[in-house]
Amino acid sequence: MSPSTSEVQPLDYTRYDFKDPETYKVRTARGLSRAIVEEISRLKNEPEWMREYRLRAFEHFLERPMPDWGPSLDEIDFDAYTYYANPLAEGETKRKWEDLPADIKNTFEKLGIPKAEREFFGGVGAQYDSGTVYHKIREDLEKKGVVFTDTDTAVQKYPDIVRKYFGKIVPYNDNKFSALNSAVWSGGSFVYVPPGVDAGIPLQAYFRINAKNVGQFERTLIVADKGAKVHYIEGCLPVGEEVLTGDALAPIESLTEGQEVVNSDGVATTVERTMVRPYDGDLIDITPVSVGNAFQLTPEHPVLSVPRSDVQVSRRAPPRTTGVDRKKLANARPRFVPAGELRSGDFLHYPIHRTARDDPSLGTPELTVLGYYLAEGVTRIINGGEAVTFTVPLDEPEHVDDLAGAIRAITGTPPWVSPQPAEHAVEIGVSSKDLFTLCRWHGGTSAGKKQLSKVVMDLPPEKQAVLLEKYYRGDGNTYERSGTAHRVSTTSRQLAFQVQELQARQGVYASIDVREPFEETMKDGRRISHARAYTVSHPRGTRFRAVHRVPDGFLVPIRRVRRTPYKGNVHNFHVAGSNNTYLVKGFSVHNCTAPVYSTNSLHAAVVEVVAEPYAKIRYTTVQNWSKNVYNLVTKRAHGYEDSLVEWVDGNMGSRVTMKYPSVYLKGRGARADILSVAFASEGQIIDSGAKAVHSAPDTSSKIVSKSIAIRGGQTSYRGLLHIAKGATGVKAAVRCDALLPDDLSRSDTYPYNEIHEEDATVTHEAVVGKIGEEQIFYLMSRGLNESDAIHLILMGFLAEFAKELPVDYALELNRLIQLEMTGAVG
Fold first, then answer.
1. Both ends of the chain: CA-CA distance in Å?
2. Spelled out in words, what is the top-level CATH class assigned to the domain 356-452?
3. What stretch(es) of the chain map to CATH 3.10.28.10?
4. pLDDT by residue (tens digit) across 77-109?
């Protein structure tokens, strides 16, 4: 999925929770002081003018009060943050992707940087916490004289250009957070396009906060010289893969908010938010020794495992389960490893489900009947009444007595017992509505649809042992293969995985093998079709010594790892609680990507843009910070004679955003086009807008602001239109549209119009609306459900914004809105 602009993540990053180890080559102490500011400058080996600039900014920051308008910022503790943390040594920014440290490279590969570089962008930069770890520009642009590098490097290599513009567009004394940024800034992008050059292909930057309580304070400076043009952009599991929901497996795309799943601790939790993104690349096919548990996922998806290299006896041992030091394995601590790094012989973590909820209505007689029902039972209608019948081998009279006694205990009626010598079987049956209901409710219907209820799956293990014993009595057999194994077969896939889970709760790892459908020709010429069958087997000897028991489950070796090309949607979800994991075919995986911390993070960037005469600059942002981030950004452009500055600004994430991209029109004929979108959900305040300041005649500006608030989110438009004395012939238009799909949310508008010339042409319109019932009715009458109808209306509302985005960003916007709307209807 295409990354977002102020943070690099594939989609809805507030719910993705992977975080890399905090290994930094350079990191200052926590807190903010003059000494910290001086240390940052010293670490960067900056010229004296930059050091003095930082210190002046720091003094102003201390003197400047917090804003007394807008959202509350009272919870920000400036001494709680680390202001500089760099995973590379200062000046170690890479120009070759393969030179990056593996953990950082893996992080950004998840977000598509290498692919973006190859396929779409003229240059790519990546910032990780305080450090710019990668910058590269296409050779053809470099030959034209286009400079695209990190701002730290620019201070050293292009001091004349930097000093000419740095702090001139956004001075340190503009506001408290520009002062903070000016004091502690690190990283960011520097772009310079020489006169007359059209960069043509967009340049893109990615920003990521990885560490807890580390602020990010990048400084971006973009200069398009006379007549130049540039576009600058800031920057799981496949369909059908199955997740353990506690009582059964469910396709990941079918999961909904509030649905119960099981985490890697074997504890029931709930889905908080689901996600989907397009994917075009390899999937990792992982086949454990239990072939039926094979699963697929994207290469970056973290899987809880023990690499075989950690526990092997000798490096010369073959890549199977031999050569493993079982003492090392017993003491090994599983860790999350990207699926793409797993190898044959590595061990997967299979936890034991620990949820236990007793149901007194299910005692030994009921569980005895259910066990035999799974094996050989059928629910039927006989003479208009409900009945249950069982078929038991003729030579197993003890089973007949066992089952008949259980039926009598439940119904108070002796069952009929009908020997069928020709079939070498005995039919046992009873007409009982209660027993009919018990079997169908807790055991399913026909053979291929038999499935245990959630009530049974949650029973204490000692009760489940009764059911298993009777099921294996009725349908089990033993066979010899490297020892004695016990097995049952079923055409119900769900039941096979449920039996595997129940066996795990008995301390036994059971393997699942699959027999594909086939046709068989009998001696009399008849052709018989056999359905797909699942065999669940467990050892009574050395059969599965390769599987190792650990206190919370099992370590199961991987038999085979392959890659399969895939193009389509992949899914993920965030679960409640701190253990953001779930089980795929019973194996532990982690949610797959951006860190979510309980404490707040701070992002206070400054962006300075200069469009010299006749130049054109477009700056596109689609930010989706995690919902614990205070996103406090100052973005401003100066446009000179006949220049054009376009801001395309989308705000979808963060806890609080305060951002008002501005254009100061300082030359005759300069133009500004600002398109701003805010989308706020529960717990979010997006206070955004735009400013257009007309200082020269014949200038024009257009501001379009669109906002959507759902689930109690708050959006505000805060804008300024200023026409100075002497700025004659100005044309300006402001339009603010807000949409509130529910009654919980809020939208406010705070426009400021300061007009000092009488001949100015100014229009301002603001509309706040709800989705009309007639709109929904019309779309539903055309076949859409209510959720899809509302989503279509919202995307129509945002069409003006979406059409200005690169196609990948437009797709992500569409899916993000769709995901945020999940559960918002009704």
1. 30
2. alpha beta
3. 356-452
4. 998 888 887 654 444 444 454 555 554 445 444
